[in-house]
Design a protein that fits this description.
The chain is α+β, with helices and mostly antiparallel strands. 15% of the residues lie in helices and 25% in strands.
Length: 336
């Protein structure tokens, strides 16, 4: 299991504890750390800067020559074509020698006769989103010269745990944090749940029913119908944390199920209800010769002891393992 220290720090304050010390403590608990890896999608100095002056480029209507304070003596002169580049805003500044996603290296360059010592970044240039229309405008409270990688969690340290079968309680971040907090004598911070209110009682019985045939292998299975969902891109923090944990971000619906699964260690999966025959969920063991094509595109031949999630006609998932390709959330999914 891969553990992001950025994510783990939500539940336990490890800000002043070196990664190797965290690894040593986890290993002493029986949660063997097999490797420690530093990951980052940017390198070099990408920092917060403030535009202290912005003048029209003498030879280009769409460009401005900006003086940018990054908290290191003399300001940097940067030529910028963004329409919102103006005096007083704080921006993300990639200095000369830094590297952005896509192996884009920042170099000193001459633009229409004016030398530019760096670049102020749009969201797509940092891998935050696809937005390219303007440079990022940061809050005035963000410290000049501070690391943009830390601000957006663009860098992380990842521990790989070699969990033994008897430690399924640590298949989620909260389980790992609980053990580590006890070992270090630090408070455990659980996700806040108080104050959550529903506009109405939740009932899905008229939309989906659940029947469990294998009660010994699956004593509990819950289904909840949700409509008017959108398969938009997830926020950057969710995408980064999933990738650090070894999962590929797909869209907000899929990503949030994976996020909750990794947080609590509780399998959770979203099915497109339009692909659920009979609007029924049946939990049963596989039949002789039965197979399923899973989300990764692999056709899997099943054994009689495999527990399946099925609709009225077909298997739509392997319980607690992976969903089926035939009921996956798609770009046009609106009901799950």
């Amino acid at each position: 299991m891969r553990i992001s220290l950025n994510w783990l720090s939500d539940y336990i304050d490890i800000s002043n504890i070196p990664a190797d010390q965290i690894a040593e403590n986890l290993t002493s608990l029986g949660l063997e750390v097999e490797s420690i890896e530093k990951v980052s999608i940017i390198s070099g100095d990408v920092v917060v800067g403030e535009i202290i002056d912005a003048q029209q480029h003498p030879d280009a209507d769409q460009l401005r020559v900006c003086q940018v304070d990054i908290g290191r003596g003399e300001p940097l002169e940067i030529v910028c074509g963004a329409p919102n580049a103006r005096k007083g805003i704080r921006a993300c500044v990639a200095t000369v020698g830094s590297t952005l996603p896509g192996n884009f290296k920042i170099k000193k360059s001459k633009i229409r006769g004016v030398t530019s010592f760096g670049m102020m970044c749009a969201e797509d240039e940092l891998g935050i989103s696809k937005m390219h229309d303007q440079i990022i405008e940061l809050e005035q409270s963000v410290t000049i010269g501070s690391s943009v990688a830390k601000l957006y969690e663009l860098e992380d340290t990842v521990l790989t745990l070699g969990l033994t079968p008897n430690r399924s309680d640590c298949l989620g971040y909260i389980g790992v944090a609980r053990d580590l907090a006890a070992k270090l004598g630090l408070p455990l911070k659980l996700p806040a749940q108080s104050g959550l209110k529903l506009s109405q009682d939740i009932s899905s019985a008229d939309k989906i029913s659940v029947n469990i045939s294998e009660i010994e292998d699956c004593p509990r299975f819950c289904a909840l119908y949700v409509d008017r969902v959108s398969t938009i891109e997830s926020p950057l923090k969710i995408r980064n944390r999933l990738e650090a944990s070894g999962m590929r971000p797909i869209n907000l619906i899929v990503d949030i199920t994976n996020y909750v699964m990794l947080e609590y260690g509780q399998p959770i999966h979203a099915y497109d209800i339009n692909d659920i025959s009979g609007n029924k969920i049946n939990v049963r063991c596989a039949k002789q010769g039965e197979s399923i094509t899973s989300l990764d595109g692999s056709k899997r031949e099943l054994e009689s002891e495999d527990v399946l999630i099925c609709d009225d006609s077909n298997a739509i998932g392997i319980a607690g393992v992976m969903g089926g390709e035939n009921s996956e959330v798609k770009d046009n999914t609106t009901e799950i």
